[in-house]
Amino acid sequence: MRIAYLDCVGGISGDMFVGALLDAGWPEDSFRRSVAWLGDEIAELRIETRSHHALRGLGIEVTPEKSRGGHHHRNLADVTACLQAAPLPDAVRERAVAVFRRLAEGEARAHGKTVETVRFHEVGAVDAMVDVVATCQGLTDLAIDRLYVSPLPVGRGEIRGAHGTIPLPAPATAHLLSGVPVRWTGVEGERTTPTGAALATTLGCWEIPPPMVLEAVGTGAGTRGLEDVPNLARLFVGSPRAEASPTGGLSAIPDWGWRDDPAGGTCPGKWGAVVVLEAQVDDATPEEVSVWTAELLEKGALDVYVTAVTMKKGRLGSLVTAICRPDLEEHLVNLLLRSTTTLGVRRRVEWRRELERTTTDVETPFGRVAVKMAQRGSSWVGKPEFESCRQAALGAGASFGAVWRAALAAVVALGDWQPPGEGRNG
């Protein structure tokens, strides 16, 4: 799994995003192939090295073919049809369509129209098509699974658009930024363009990125110079890694493996990283939720639990939380997205300290019952396993409670039990 963090120092636009991807290692020939299907709509496609405040970065410049009119006032259906006909990977096409749909939503709100009737102006031009498609293809080619984004900077003042002079942030941009962190610069000039806002808000998230092993840094540069900061956007690409030792050490654990507690302590155990996955659903029956939780456990989740929540517009829903080892994260995320009705899954990495544990069997009047044993301090304590008690009860024709109480009494009778090989019962 690879992640990336987009640090919008001066702002973000489509050409800056593509420049950052190229500077981070996306091959130029792959970039050009990703938009070659636009054919004679493009007169020239250049990759430029730009400098701001003595810092360099890359950007792209698209020159439309003048005979094609330069700006195509397409609507969403036109753009979607164009993308559907393009020779693009399905994942890239789906992302690009989603970005343009979000752009249409912002433009529609700004102009008081519907998503279907609003017509793109600047964002319908060929350079916007290049920015969006190339960004989606670049993220795919660099195998970036999750994109984190810094708060987006916005400026003040005015800018000329297809409808004349408009205030900044541009009306469509303002609507696109609804619900995400922004940084008011107080300085005149456009910092976040509609295309940049649509790309960031469609493809990114605003969580704090987890610790990562940095593999590449790409810098995208805008065309306009800024007085207060360099007009750059930096893309940090790498692989997530566990945080520094929770016992206070500064050295990061080099992999996801579990380690003995270096601090010792009265409760022996191990520290390790786990992934916590969360999905909210408000359109499923309790029976459906119970099927999902059982399937998650069957597929390797360490634990699954469901919390009743109240969602927007007062709807009652369920928060499904699954805890798993990091190597199962992708599998369980796909399971949640495929099997449940949720539209998204959140994830975070947490440290977990586990007690030493094992299982053993105890004899009861109803047969042998499995018991889970855990070491607390110098002693081992046990608890009968639910499923084992249930099977014993069914086999003996007894009540579950009778079997449970008998197994619990047998656990107490174990006294100073030790795991095999460690004590008198070994």
Structure description:
The protein is of the alpha+beta class. It folds into 3 domains: 2-240, no CATH class; 259-355, Transcriptional regulatory protein pf0864 domain like (Alpha-Beta Plaits); 357-413, no CATH class. 31% of the residues lie in helices and 33% in strands. The strands form 6 sheets. A 5-stranded mixed β-sheet has the order 9-4-1-11-10. Strands 12, 13, 14, 15 and 16 form a 5-stranded antiparallel β-sheet that branches. The chain has a 3-stranded antiparallel β-sheet with strand order 17-18-19. Helix 1 runs parallel beside helix 5, helix 2 crosses helix 5 (126-141) and helix 10 (386-396) crosses helix 11. The chain is elongated.
Class from helix and strand fractions: alpha+beta
The tally of beta strands, per DSSP, is 19
* Domain module count: 3
Please, what is the average pLDDT?
85
Radius of gyration: 28 Å
Tally of individual helices: 11
What proportion of the residues form beta strands (DSSP E)?
A: 25-35%
**Separation, N- and C-terminal Cα atoms:** 43 Å
